[in-house]
Amino acid sequence: MTVESGVRPSTHRRGTAGHVPGEAELWIFIMGDLTVFGVFFTIWAWNYAQHPQLFELGRASMSQPIGLAETLTLISSSAAVVIALTHARWEQWSRAYRCYLAAIGFGAVFVVLKAIEYGRHLSVGAHALAGEFFMYYFVFTGIHLLHVLVGLLGLSAAARSMRANAPRRCSIALLEGIGVYWHMVDVLWVVLFSLIYLI
Fold this sequence. Notes:
Layout: H1 24-50, H2 52-60, H3 64-89, H4 93-123, H5 132-163, H6 172-198
Helix pairs in contact: 1-2, 1-5, 1-6, 3-4, 3-6, 4-5, 5-6
């Protein structure tokens, strides 16, 4: 594999066996975030058990094709981040830059799809005050959407660093942290998709 800088990146290749990506502080945040969403999922499950017919009625109004498209865009974005990080470890900055752009593009498509979905519900009066299903739907997916926007900012910072061929300002550890956060966003959406659209 050719390295754009002409130097094999021995100091940048942190993907060895047993290596924990990112920084310890990041994992504290990740675990806290997962705990909060775990509470969300438990609340959803408990309320579903209390009002199954109401939740089934709400689920019937959801567009599974849109939800599936949202899921596929985030999975594709996560795959692009993995490839980008691999290129970054080998100091292939331009390739990493293009992959980060692809990840951002897929993430932006998710945001557009979610906006379309929100607009579709609001146009028929299905808002956060229209019942428990939609209250939880808008709150949980809205918080997740906020995480997506934060993640896109992180990916944009990584892309800018790759474009400037100055990754020293964006260390591999930081790139790993951005990637871990984005994968968490992806996993959380897969669970939300299953709860809201399928189960």
